[in-house]
């Protein structure tokens, strides 16, 4: 199944017109013709089935013939991750986290962060592409970058965890996570969280967790956390 994405599509629509870029892709690349079936999501849980009524290269039109509302997960998983020094690694993380299953991602700027500016528009496209590729109907929420201090000033809910490299007693994340409970996991930069940042997290109720015996890169740690939470909830 080929999945398309358009956030403006809702249940009131009876027909849908694709952009010129998408129309060209549908007709020229996918070789779709009149009466062929396409699938579209708006990223809010809806899956629309549409039949092509005009296979124009510049303005492909389709008629909505069926609508299905997918149920959201029973829990909300929020990854708060420091952007990596190499941007392609952060994009890789976003792609894989979307495929595995994450609800919300917040890039956080820490004391040891080597990258403090990211291109949000490009990252949004990475997430959208991963959602379509993995045939999901819910688009993860990508927040604007925020400083560690600003993030810690926000109210926190659910199960709160911080994964850091300091040598102290920690329980494995898989032993901390509970099914159907909202979860937030903090993942620091390549240079790890500072001692001050760790203390601030503890004061806000975050508990230290281990992601395994090996020391992991930022993007790898985030994927391990994502996989762990997903397995606990879908195992």
UniProtKB/TrEMBL annotation:
Gene Ontology cellular component list: cytoplasm
GO function terms (MF aspect): rRNA (uridine-N3-)-methyltransferase activity
Biological-process GO terms, alphabetical: rRNA base methylation
Sequence ranges assigned to domain Ribosomal RNA small subunit methyltransferase E PUA-like in this UniProt record: 19-63
Record field: catalytic activity: uridine(1498) in 16S rRNA + S-adenosyl-L-methionine = N(3)-methyluridine(1498) in 16S rRNA + S-adenosyl-L-homocysteine + H(+)
Compartments, as annotated in UniProt: Cytoplasm
InterPro entries for this protein: Alpha/beta_knot_MTases, PUA-like_sf, RsmE, RsmE_MTase_dom, RsmE_PUA-like, tRNA_m1G_MTases_N
Pfam families referenced in this protein's UniProt entry, alphabetically: Methyltrans_RNA, PUA_4
Entry EC no(s): 2.1.1.193
Domain Ribosomal RNA small subunit methyltransferase E methyltransferase stretches: 76-229
Family: Belongs to the RNA methyltransferase RsmE family.
Family matches, as NCBIfam families: PRK11713.6-1, RsmE family RNA methyltransferase
Name of the protein: Ribosomal RNA small subunit methyltransferase E
Origin species: Maribacter algarum (ex Zhang et al. 2020)
């Amino acid at each position: 199944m080929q999945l398309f994405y358009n956030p403006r599509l809702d249940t009131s629509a009876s027909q849908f017109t694709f952009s010129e870029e998408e129309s060209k892709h549908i007709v020229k690349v996918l070789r779709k013709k009149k009466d062929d079936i396409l699938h579209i999501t708006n990223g809010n849980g809806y899956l629309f089935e549409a039949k092509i009524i005009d296979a124009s290269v510049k303005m492909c039109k389709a008629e909505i013939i069926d609508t299905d509302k997918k149920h959201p997960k029973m829990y909300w998983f929020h990854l708060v991750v420091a952007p990596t020094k190499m941007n392609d690694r952060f994009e890789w993380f976003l792609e894989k986290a979307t495929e595995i299953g994450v609800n919300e991602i917040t890039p956080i700027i820490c004391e040891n962060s080597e990258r403090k500016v990211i291109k949000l528009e490009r990252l949004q496209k990475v997430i959208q592409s991963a959602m379509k590729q993995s045939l999901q109907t819910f688009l993860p929420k990508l927040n604007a970058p925020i400083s560690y201090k600003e993030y810690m000033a926000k109210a926190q809910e659910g199960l709160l965890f911080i994964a850091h490299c300091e040598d102290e007693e920690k329980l494995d994340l898989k032993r901390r996570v509970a099914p159907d409970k909202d979860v937030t996991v903090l993942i620091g930069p390549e240079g790890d969280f500072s001692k001050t940042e760790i203390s601030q997290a503890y004061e806000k109720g975050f508990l230290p967790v281990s992601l395994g015996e090996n020391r992991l890169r930022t993007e790898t740690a985030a994927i391990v956390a994502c996989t762990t939470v997903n397995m606990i909830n879908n195992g």
